[in-house]
Amino acid sequence: MAILPIYAYGHPILRAPARPVEGDSPELQQLIEDMLETMYQAAGIGLAAPQVGHSLRLFVADLAQPSGGEGHRGRPGKPEVFINPEILAVSDVEVEYEEGCLSIPEVRERIWRPEVIRVRYQDRDFRWHEEEMGGLRARVFQHEYDHLEGILLIDRISAFRRRLLRRKLEDIAQGRVQVDYLLAIASPAPQVVR
């Protein structure tokens, strides 16, 4: 397994809609393992393929993974893999919750999202599932699904809040941010910083 660099805000792949996963392969299964390992190493609870440089409709999540710094990394053992996910329906009721993103380190914003969603996806064995989700699981699904559509959490906040974050976002795009995981930036040329 490999730890992959996480692409930072400003990289074009984060804004492009991802393409469907066409079928299983040893390379895909390796990517899934590498994404899980990368997510755990970065102490995240979700990670989408575009965040590690692959324009594929794929994300991983582990809600048992405690978020937040050293001493919380590891493999809690409840990883989920979502391939070619779809959101079929959303509830009228929305809830607000503070979200962060590994591609936008040091930024946490309160985001409104539907409380309950109905989804369809394939697991890592390419079996289809359709289910209703609520709570944190629904929130993580929607956040990671946004990545597959080229949408970032800052797109879900007010223009005023985005203006307030402008300098911080510029710093992230330039790699002027301290993280304890590999971060790939796009400008002036793609590179990896620590």
Backbone CA Rg:
16 Å
Summarize model confidence as the mean pLDDT. Answer: 92
Q: What is the number of helical segments per DSSP (H or I, 4+ residues)?
A: 3
Question: Order of strands side by side in the largest beta sheet?
Answer: 2-3-4-7-8
Shape: globular
The total domain count is 1
Structural overview:
By secondary structure, this protein is of the alpha+beta class. It has a single domain, classed as Peptide Deformylase (Alpha-Beta Complex). Helices cover 24% and strands 28% of the residues. The protein has 3 helices and 10 strands. The chain has helices at 26-41, 135-149, 159-173; strands at residues 6-7, 46-48, 58-61, 80-90, 94-100, 108-114, 116-122, 128-134, 183-185, 191-193. The protein starts with 5 loop residues before the first strand and ends with a strand.
What does this entry show, briefly?
Helices cover 24% and strands 28% of the residues.
Describe how the helices and strands are arranged.
Layout: E1 6-7, H1 26-41, E2 46-48, E3 58-61, E4 80-90, E5 94-100, E6 108-114, E7 116-122, E8 128-134, H2 135-149, H3 159-173, E9 183-185, E10 191-193
Parallel strand pairs: 1-9
Antiparallel strand pairs: 2-3, 3-4, 4-7, 5-6, 7-8, 9-10
Annotation keywords:
3-stranded mixed β-sheet, 24% helix, single chain, 3 helices, 5-stranded antiparallel β-sheet, Peptide Deformylase, 194 residues, alpha+beta
